[in-house]
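Fig. S4 source data, part A: sequence.
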Amino acid sequence: MANTFVIACPDCAKQVKVSEEHIGKRIKCKGCGTIYPVKAPSEAAAASAPKTKAAPSAPKTRAAPSAPKTQAEPPPAPEPSKPDPNAYEDYDPNDYSLAVVNDTLPRCPFCAKEMESNEALICLHCGYNTRTRMRPEVKAVYEPTFGDWFLWLLPGILVVLLAIGMLVWYLVFWNLIEDWLADSWFEDEPGPPRTYLAGLGPGFMRLYHGLIILFLYVPIFRYAFKRLVKEYRPPERSIKPEY
């Protein structure tokens, strides 16, 4: 068990018994409510001992030639006060009550540092959010290089070029489909008017070819928008800590 000793309140001189593990901590006097730090026995005795002033010297008088010089005796030292054995009966080392301090701003529950204002929700020192009771995750990442940007945006660029190529192909198909169907097995009678088997003429081919290209454009433009606009930044690469 830790050694105990007695200290006195600096305001009302009420004495309490504390142990060595409380040295450096602050306690509250149950007599007057004063909050004061617990000091070592030597420091507490030095702080509580009354300061005595030297007695004023008597006026100098001319002594007779034959009288010997005598030195004044110092005043007796005050006797140290004896500790009151009943002073620490009400002391409870497990009584952790809140102390009133003179802080003007609230403190962060995580790092115990002052908040920016009374209405502040996020601590500027550690990032703790007093409403969600969470801290943002902080991690070290590499800065994306030109190669990272190029490899990340390349699929989106290729998809856009594919969409442009499909549009050019449809224009060529539109102009040449009549010549491709002439003298083919789709042609029923050369005409005029030229007829085709089951109505599979140039108009039918242009319509359904355009619908197929339009159907393919939906996922193509969706992927290009996601890669080039919505998520254009390359993914972060975390720096592994060195142990």
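Fig. S4 source data, part B ends here. Helices lie at 41-48, 146-181, 202-230.
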